[in-house]
Structure prediction request, 685 residues.
Amino acid sequence: MQEPVLNTIALAEIDATDLLFSLNPVSTDPGLVASITAIGLAQPLRLQKRLDHHYRIVSGFQRFAAARAAGLESLPAFVYNSDVDSLQLYEWVLAEKSCAKPLNALQASCAITRLRTDFSRSDEEIIRRFFPLMRLAPNPRLLSLYAPLQRLELPLQLLLLQDEISIEIAAALAARSAQEQICFHDVMQTLRLGKNRQREFWLLLTDIERLQKTSFAQLLGQAPLGPVLAEPSLTPSQKSDKLKLALMHLRYPAYSAALDRYEKILHRAKLPPEIHLRPAPYFASDQFQVDFSFRSAKELKQRLKVLQDMLDQGLADELMDLV
Amino acid sequence: MKPATNYALFLPDKIYVEDAVRATIWTQRILAHVPQAVVEHVPTLDGWAPPPGEKNILLAQQRGPFLRLCPGTTRHICCLYHNLDIAAGCDLGCSYCILQAYLNVPTTTLYTNLDALFAELDEKLGRYPNRFYRIGTGELSDSLTFDHFAAWSGDLVTYFAGQNNAIIELKSKNTHIDHFVHLPHRRRTVVSWSVNAEAKMVTEEPHAPSLQERLAAAVEVQKAGFRLGFHFDPMIHHAGWEEGYRETVDAIFRRIDPANIAWISLGALRYPPVLDEIIRENHPDSDIVLGELLPGIDHKYRYFRAIRIEMFAKMYNWIRGYSNDVFVYLCMESDDIWRRSFGWSPRSSAGLKKLLDARVRG
Prediction:
């Protein structure tokens, strides 16, 4: 590739709307503006001259925005000719951006989209040739996870950059409408869900929407889920527990019905706190476990009497009927 | 009109041949049966990984034992079956298939050092002449799905016809019976078909032959005097499951004489947690993951037990409506599920083995 030549270029000749080589949303960093105002632009931009004699930015989008905000009229830049292959320049950008650390998920998503659309590269080539440049493992699964992230709504992009949402959930959400994305974002924020709980709720909601042939946004807006989310007296943790219970009822109706019956039997048995009765998790076997503590013969008699009463009321048979 | 599946005969585009098995008659036979396939020799499999390609197969040397006792699952009654790992992988791509999570071979692999397989069987069966072995090739693959070009079934049927303390079960969803149906077998081969409710065959087994095609093959095999088996596994709980499974039971007994059925097994959909994600990823349109599947005592996802019991009990009654003698068993269920579903239980894995052995020993 041709070595770029250091030149001084007028800002007016640089097309700031040409984002071919951009990997990040462009913003103006006040610290960078102050620094440029004080000492000028310490590191030249890299530009490519276009056939229309304007320049596109290859690297230095943030510096350009800051230089413009600082009132500079020209700036130093290494300039590539228009005949330099853009794809080669893009490779250089990817390698340069990821030299200190791998691209973040949104940068990777932007790069994949650009390579697919502007450079017409196949997925196979992106994985084989460009993923190593981005310091990503050449794994097709990563491509399918990263590619849709560009479509994430801004609040979710921010959560992703702050590592507060898993890439798997983010990728799944990116395939949904903006309304659904914001809806799930609001649930995550209201319930303060960590990544594991996000996944748990996402699976429950999306399974239920398939079972009921509806959308999860609709589900969350109506009873029994909506009122739980809207209840002001509940803490996030209480809301999470109640919402999960409601979701389990919708997702696993037979199991939940058995659980309800079990709770009623327990209630009727009036077991003191010293006696613990437990079924197998998810009633996976016909086994129940009872344990109790006592500190005297009298207490032991009391415990045994409670259990005998359970038997006399037929509650043990009812438990067996559950499983 | 019954729905049809999209079954297409599998023929490999490319065959990789490990040098160690290049000269075996089983390799040569496969290559002769698929002359249009591109053949590439692989000096060693150490570190070898083929480029992706769905219609590639590898002919390789089985380095471990061919014969393995089924590992069973914790606190469940297992039939103590022996698996004969003659291949690893399958072309049928069923949504629920455990092989999606289980195999660690680089591509669909057919082992073609069958001289070692028969030597191992000679040694094992000869060493314990008083033990009875039920052996099957349908664990890591489908027993017949590659048989139209591998033609192993003939070797196996002939070998087991000479054994007194073992039978081979060829368990399949496919219909490739031409290489063995005419052979003498001494009823030492059980040919069995995995079947399902027809609606689920269409959605979850779309690349396998239809029920009617499987039963047509079963009829041919029956005519040749073989014992038959049917495996309703995995049973899938879905809207209309009762009609669906009942119709499949009806279809079997309309065409197959119960006296020729060695066994019918029932097993409900179950899988390790890792497979849940794989099914969602590989088969996004499949709704089998939407069942009431909950972690069981062996940590696999299984239908809530009341659902399983209802499915098994109804199936048992429908089958009993046709025959009191056909042996029906549950695959990988606990003693209490047996009792609640069938009203009786073999009590232990050894008890079940004894009952199954008795079906085919004579």
